[in-house]
Design a protein that fits this description.
The chain is mainly beta. The chain is 2% helix and 47% strand. The strands form three sheets. Strands 1, 2, 3, 4, 5, 6, 7, 8, 9, 10, 11, 12 and 13 form a 13-stranded antiparallel beta sheet that branches. Strands 14, 15, 16, 17, 18, 21, 22, 23, 24 and 25 form a ten-stranded antiparallel beta sheet that branches. It has a two-stranded antiparallel ribbon with strand order 19-20. 44% of the residues are buried.
């Protein structure tokens, strides 16, 4: 996936300054002196995705702090027994403000080179309501973290920002995801991995342009059986469905002429999955280096170069929040042997995170045509350009 990489200057101010004294649970307060780091860092000081990567799961489920930017991204479509449908997004972002290896020794519990942000959304399709909330925090003092990491390479998988978290469960290939919003919506899900990790791009090296290092390390867990409870206000719903998970880490991945992207993570009813997308350029063209991935029912994969598919917008929606005009329907065609085509339609038009920077559209979609199913679409660069942001 190409996930939104935000301008972190304001986020860092909040994360580094906006803290209060913490009670450690033993009745004694933690004492700390505040030590603030610079809000930006030279990207050349961080690792780049510029060569094949030696993947090692479950270690690589966790954090890679040698890289400047990283995210863990979950999107899913679920329904209750009566067929009432919902979509959800849960994403945790990590951003380094200084290289971890260059951090000076400190006695402060609050010193950190990492800041975190999380987005949590819920789409109630029956009522056409869209709920969303974002949070920021610093790393350290258990406020926000991602494990395993270089210091704890054998730790169980767990990514958290305060009480929003996803973690490995006791059963193999099973995870729990819990998040509760101050706006009255929550999820408590068990996710069971039915296919295991699949590597995007060239064995996990996902090019975003032809320039060396303009890439990310990227894998997906494309089909996570999802069961549990979601709550809206006083209503609780027992639901089941499927979740798509993406994990990427990189430093300065996008090319200089990238405007934004259209990305799709799709579950077919026949048991296959598809990641497909396009990076839109400032001159109106499309980036040829970025492709897609078709995952077969047995977990085998087929890489799709950019010239083996087309994505055509068929409708538009104007945001009442930002006045941006987003595509709001698509025809996707997979070319070549075994090709097929299908329509993608948003389950509700307004799924825009308009109060983030930059604003973007991310929402549940339905598939019709030669394949059917559900998935998620992400649309960036329609409000603010993504140039130099990621």
């Amino acid at each position: 996936m190409l996930k939104v990489a935000f301008a972190f200057a304001v986020v860092i101010v909040v994360a580094l300054i906006g803290f209060s004294l913490i009670n450690g649970g033993s009745g004694e307060s933690i004492t700390a002196s505040a030590e603030f780091l610079a809000p930006d860092a030279d990207a050349s000081l961080f690792a780049r995705a510029d060569a094949p990567y030696d993947w090692d799961f479950p270690r690589d489920y966790g954090s890679h702090n040698a890289f400047q930017t990283e995210w863990w991204y979950y999107t899913g479509n679920v329904a209750d027994a009566a067929g009432r449908r919902f979509g959800y997004q849960f994403t945790v972002f990590r951003r380094a403000i200084a290289p971890a290896s260059g951090e000076p020794a400190s006695a402060s519990e609050f010193r950190t080179t990492q800041v975190y942000m999380a987005h949590f959304t819920l789409s109630d399709i029956a009522s056409q309501r869209f709920f969303h909330e974002q949070r920021f925090s610093r790393g350290g003092v258990d406020l926000a973290f991602a494990l395993p990491d270089d210091n704890q390479p054998s730790a169980p998988y767990r990514v958290a920002l305060e009480n929003w978290q996803v973690r490995a469960a006791d059963a193999p290939d099973t995870f729990t995801l819990t998040a509760s919003s101050t706006n009255g919506f929550s999820v408590d899900f068990t996710l069971t991995d039915l296919k295991g990790p699949v590597l995007q791009g060239d064995a996990g090296l996902s090019a975003k342009s032809s320039l060396p290092g303009s890439a990310s390390y990227y894998y997906s867990q494309p089909r996570l059986l999802t069961e549990g409870t979601l709550t809206i206000g006083e209503q609780a719903f027992t639901v089941s469905g499927a979740t798509w998970m993406d994990h990427e880490f990189s430093t300065s991945a996008l090319g200089e002429n990238a405007l934004g992207w259209d990305w799709f993570g799709l579950h077919f009813d026949d048991g296959r999955e598809l990641m497909i997308g396009q990076i839109r350029l400032l001159d109106g063209g499309k980036e040829p280096a970025f492709g897609g991935l078709l995952i077969e029912t047995d977990g085998s994969t087929r890489y799709l170069p950019a010239d083996q598919f087309t994505i055509t917008s068929t409708a538009a929606w104007t945001s009442p929040h930002t006045s941006a005009v987003y595509p709001s329907g698509w025809q996707i065609e997979i070319l070549g042997d075994g090709g097929f085509d299908f329509a993608v339609t948003p389950l509700q038009p307004d799924q825009e995170l308009y109060d983030s920077d930059p604003s973007y559209w991310e929402g549940a979609v339905a598939l019709s045509g030669s394949v059917t199913g559900y998935g998620y679409a992400e649309l960036t660069g329609y409000v603010q350009a993504m140039t130099r942001r990621f």
